[in-house]
Each structure stands twice: as structure tokens, then as C-alpha cells.
Amino acid sequence: MQTIAVSKLRANLMKVLKAIEHGESLDITSRGKIIAKLLPPDYSREKARNKLKEIGKRAVIHDVISSIDVE
User: What's the number of domains the chain is made of?
Assistant: First the structure.
């Protein structure tokens, strides 16, 4: 993980945001001390929902509550 000072972050905000968008993570420092972290968004929950929607379009749902001995 790279570090960047607050002053450099202000001066290069758009460039830094593009790097974050492409998967980089940064520690933000003030006077040499880490005060924050910038991380790319985690879309895993959204991806899982979209995958379930895709599966739901093709899936056939049967009775999952009744015992398998009961017809």
C-alpha cells in the first residue's frame, strides 16, 4: 500500500481517484502519521445479487419444505 501526504492528495486528487478506481489502495498521511486509508469500493455484495438474479431466471424451484418421503 502506498502513502500520500494530504497536501499532495489535494494537489493531485483526480489522478489519485483514478488510481483508486483501478484498484490501488493508499494511506493518507499528515505530518508523517497515517490518518486515513483510501480503498477501491467492494462490489462483492452487488455482484452476488446480480449473479442470483441471473440464476433465478433459469432456475426451477420445487417444494423445498416438505419431507422427501411425502409426495
Answer: 1
Residue with cell string 497515517: 34
64 belongs to a structural domain: no
The answer to whether residues 27 and 3 touch, using CB atoms and an 8 Å cutoff, is yes
69 belongs to a structural domain: no
Instruction: Tell me the pLDDT tens digit for each residue of 12-51.
Output: 999 999 999 898 999 999 999 999 999 998 888 888 889 8
List the one residue out of 44, 45, 27 whose CA is nearest residue 36.
Answer: 27
Please indicate whether residue 59 or residue 12 has the higher confidence score (pLDDT).
Answer: 12
* Residue 53, domain CATH: 3.40.1620.10
3-state secondary structure of 57: helix
43, HSE (Cβ side, Cα atoms, 13 Å): 6
**In sequence order, what are the beta bridge partners of 33?**
30
